[in-house]
Design goal:
The chain is mostly beta strands. The chain contains no helices and eleven strands. Helices cover about 0% and strands about 50% of the residues. About 30% of the residues are buried.
Length: about 120
């Protein structure tokens, strides 16, 4: 059974940085895309970043100059380095894995709160 566990969320002041990590277990994900979504209070879940097993990562326009997604296939992890955080980045962040077959796997989420 696949499990994704996020860590690294917390409270940070605007302009600060946080690094989120997601550890995947129960399978091997080296050739599957991984990434992050987020959901702010009262809003729909939105795409943040995606890193394929090969190729160029993709980002939400509002974060692409501030966030960097990376992965470690040996450790089955995906990370999100978030710099120059803004209050609008406050949300629950979810990591995901897109398997070759079957539905997307989701983590349980980690809260990121950016204060002014």
């Amino acid at each position: 059974q696949v499990h994704l566990v996020e860590s690294g969320g917390g409270l940070v002041k605007a302009g600060g940085s946080l690094r989120l990590s997601c550890a995947a277990s129960g399978g091997t994900f080296a050739t599957e895309a991984m990434g992050w979504f987020r959901q702010a209070p009262g809003k729909d879940r939105e795409f943040v970043a995606r890193i394929p097993w090969s190729g160029t990562p993709a980002y939400l326009d509002s974060v692409k100059d501030r966030f960097t997604v990376s992965r470690d296939n040996a450790e089955n992890t995906v990370s999100l380095q978030m710099n120059s955080l803004e209050r609008e980045d406050t949300a629950v962040y979810y990591c995901y894995v897109d398997p070759h077959l079957g539905p997307r796997y989701w983590g349980q989420g980690t809260q990121v709160t950016v204060s002014s």
